[in-house]
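QA checklist item 7 of 12: single-chain prediction sanity check.
[x] sequence parsed
[x] length recorded as 473
[x] structure emitted
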Amino acid sequence: MRLTFRFKLFVVSLTVVSALIAAVLWAGWAALLRQEQDRLDARLCQEARRVAHGAQPDESVQRLAADMAAKLHLRSPEQLMLLQRFPDGRSGMQSGEWPADFPLKESGLQHNAGDAAQRDVIGQQEQCSLQYWQWQQKSWRLALLPGDEAYGFVAVDMADTGAELKEAVRQQLPPVVGLALLLTGLGAWLLAGLALRPVNRLRESMRSLTPRDLGQRLSDAGADAEFAELIATYNHMLERLEVSFHQASRFSGDAAHELRTPLTILRGQLEHILSQTSDSARQAELAEILDQVGKLNGITRRLLLLSRADAGQLPLHPEWLDLSALLDDLISDARMLANCSQLEASIPRQLKLYADGVLLQQLLNNLISNAVRYCRQDGWIRIRAEQTDTDLLIRFSNQCLPVSAAERARFFERFYRASNAAGHADGSGLGLSLALEIARAHHGSLRLTDTPDDEISLELRLPLVQSDAVAGR
């Protein structure tokens, strides 16, 4: 399946914006974590100062630890360890199980903290040292702050650091991201549609283009520079196409018009010579030449009608016609010429149509003659007519030698004759083309329907004209 350019543009826009949203969210999350880490470090230094300057009885240490855990947003005091150490080696307040190999010598801790961050959070005389410490397969954040009489140690388990922030983000992020993606998708789709609006306008103009409307031009008012250039190129192409088409149309029309007079004179002279000749062999030759002149005259007449149809100047003289009677007469003539096994016709009575009688008769005669000419000897011809609320529908079907799909696609090309028409020298390849133009001139349609290879079916649809439209003519 071929994807539309709008869909591709939508996917690319959505992908780019989604990537930008992901980058912004990642950067924002990293910034939040850094901010949370900074707040944690500041709190640890403040709590280390409380430990260094505090003098609490043993029973109050647990309450102090619980208070610190609450301020640090820990789930339980077990995730916190604090220690007060005096310079002479004595220990003051202590909470948690400090390891036996922990470097309790304050100078040793400071020397071993090569990556420690020095924070001046208390004052110029008190520097807080921070570092990460691995113990019991856990990552701890350790703060040391020297006091006037003792050192304060505070260590916190990093497993739940920022847990509150992470939980809040986990709850709020999915709906926010979902809404952002929805709005992004809607915006990308609208943006793709807006970007393709000039292209769609150009497409609709191309779709509505007919040989009779080659004079139309697109306006570039309000168009962007790129699309204004595209519209200018399109209008220039239309101008060249219009000139070429009118030149070709005038040539075929002028040529057909100029040929009519000499062909008429030639036909008259041949008929006069034929009437003055008593030699039967000579008469046969002249009759053959006269027949060919008649065919050439018919081709000229069709070319003239086609050139007028191309120029939108096919003259119409509409009148109310008894379509049932007209079809009956044409079918009666076809029965005498048909070499098929059977010719079936189903024509309802009192079919009325407001149309040009001469052109409509030529249209129907071309379709019936085509069915008769190319019907198999053991085949059949079926002609069915029916009337709907708005149209007259006539189907012309016949059995024939197999016709390929490639040949069917060229049925209405001028001067084209299918391979199974090789044995019919009287055809010119203009009958169906002219029939199509006459149907279009009556605002109708003529199309080749889907059938098996050994069957041809043409569907003619002509619109009915209501009585109020007739009265207005």
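[x] summary fact logged: The first strand starts at residue 80 and ends at 85.
[ ] second reviewer sign-off
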